[in-house]
Amino acid sequence: MRAFFAVDLPEALAPAVADAQAPFADASGVAPVDPERAHVTLKFCGDVADAADESADAEGSAPALDAVIAAGERAVDRAGVAPFDCEVEGLGVFPSREYISVVWSGVDAGTAELTALHDALEAETTALGVDPADHAFTPHVTLARVGDASGAEAVRRALDAEDPEVGTFSVDEIRLVESTLTPSGPEYDAVREFGLD
User: Fold this and answer.
1) Which residues sit opposite 105 in a β-bridge?
2) CA distance 114 to 91
3) What is the largest CA-CA distance in the chain?
4) Tens digits of residue pLDDT in 74-99
5) Motif range for HXTX 1 (predicted)?
6) For the segment 117-130, what is each residue's pLDDT rounded down to a tens digit?
7) What residue ranges do the domains of the chain occupy?
8) What distance lies between CA 36 and its chain's CA centroid?
9) Is 164:105 a contact under the CB 8 Å cutoff?
10) 15-59 pLDDT, tens per residue?
11) Looking at residue 183, what is its pLDDT?
12) Are the CB atoms for 62 and 162 separated by under 8 Å?
């Protein structure tokens, strides 16, 4: 299974996520994410072998689910982050304004705590053989993915004209999430929750 660690936005913020997407949601080549599945990804793990996969312990294979769960527990302890408030606002893009593939809303309050959790998860999961991140961690909520230049122009107009406030919410846990790709978009299922002390 494909898995990642994340902080989920509460469903109460879904309308505000949809409002932030509205200026470019209907543009050609732009695929908005489901507002009810909005989250901040802390660490993408890629393929994880569940208990039924007997190759989990083989050299060079995907790490076992139990090992990833244990790594999540160690990471939360290592980060030492207490429950905190997270504020999501504004618009940004990856990798650049000239070539846009992802549109996101950034994190203001809560950046330090999310970064501490990311750093701890990065250390614990790469020790299991998970690929290290290939870019600096920028805590954000993905709003849309952009597939062609016509969509990118609509996003650039929004960058110049909009400054959405998605909202503030309390974070008292992180989750290990299974991501299943489907023709209508990814489906997410929580595998395990890790409470913050």
Assistant:
1) 141
2) 18
3) 53
4) 999 999 999 999 999 999 999 999 99
5) 39-42
6) 999 999 999 999 99
7) 2-195
8) 13
9) yes
10) 999 999 999 999 999 999 999 999 999 999 999 998 655 444 455
11) 81
12) no
Pairing of strands 30-32, 165-171: unpaired
Domain 2-195 has CATH 3.90.1140.10: yes
Name the pTM for this structure.
Answer: 0.92
Residue appearing with tokens 């650049």:
96
Give the strand pairing for 100-107 and 187-195. Answer: unpaired
The residue assigned the tokens 């230049």 is: 149
Residue 140 annotated in active site = yes
Backbone angles phi, psi at 172, to 5 degrees: -125, 5
Catalytic residue from among 125, 140, 151, 155 = 140
The tokens describing 108, both together, are 């203001």
What are the residues whose beta carbons fall under 8 Å from the beta carbon of 115, sequence distance 6 or more?
Answer: 137, 139
Instruction: Judge residue 58's burial from the number of C-beta atoms within 10 Å of its C-beta, 0-12 exposed, 13-18 middle, 19 or more buried.
Output: exposed
Kind plus residue range of the DSSP H or E element containing 41: strand 39-47
pLDDT of residue 151: 86
Question: Is residue 64 scored above 80 in pLDDT?
Answer: yes
Residue 110 is which amino acid?
A: G
Cα separation of 30 and 93, whole Å? 13
Of the listed 16, 37, 39, 122, which one is catalytic? 39
Which stretch of DSSP H or E encloses residue 75?
helix 65-79
Residue 53: the pLDDT is 55
Q: What mean pLDDT, rounded, does the chain reach?
A: 92
CA distance 20 to 133: 27
